Amino acid sequence: QSNPRQESITDLAFFEDRLLVAGLSNEEFSSALRAIPFPFQKIAHGTSVEIYHGAHGKFETRAPIRTFVPFKVGNEPQLLAAYTCTPLVQFPLKDIQPAAKIKGKTIAELGNRNRPLDMIVYHKDGKDWLLLANNSRGVMKISTENIAGAEAITAPVGGGGTKGQTYQTIESWKGVEQLDKLDDTRALVVRKTEAGALNLESLPLP
Length: 206
What we know:
globular, mainly beta, 206 residues
């Protein structure tokens, strides 16, 4: 229904010596990831990705990643990716290889009818947290506790329910559309006011 060119790149991040790019390709498994070595010499074929979407009750290969962050689980670099409606999926970075087909591990269902907008990871009070901005459920502070041993979600999650990693809503962070870490204690956010204006603000990490 929409122009697929608008989703050829949905998010990107630089991690260690690679640029990580998420989006859609024209392959059969159109949801794709690319890990492009820096300095840029060439761009190889992307990695096709498949996930289980609990709210939809099925495996999917065409839904694009909306936002992601690199995150080390133990000593192994992982990519944590959020999709529309809102599965949170884990991919080992070592598996993102040219022309490969991989299956992500769905570690949370955060509620349907919801579109992720942006996500960061930060450390506070001795723990790592994910902060996920979205369009209908406010900013979510998601626990990464026990994420290494998290059980994969492989069965339907009905009724718009949630499952897996837990979260709390940061009620004071309304209207956030983009965010990034400013330093170890603050985030930089773009958020929309009730009048429709966009404000750039620094906020203490919750």
